[in-house]
Amino acid sequence: MSEPIPPYHERIPELSAELADRGCLGVIVLDTSALTSIEDEYGSDAYDEVRRRTFKILAEQRQKKRSAQGRVTTAPKRGAP
To answer: What pTM did the predictor assign?
Structure first.
């Protein structure tokens, strides 16, 4: 069985600290409730595989964002008027 995904409200302190540190924050919230039908119809192995692939794609996107972070920004410089 896979580890549970923490709800966003449990991560608010961590997100707040990151926002305070960086001055900007991007958040993606996914409603994965539809995935329960996969588990119901095809079993927990299929559900775990879909979940694993989803997290892999999200991790890849996070890496792409981090590698481009120094080149492009829409956030104002800290301390700018």
So the answer is: 0.56
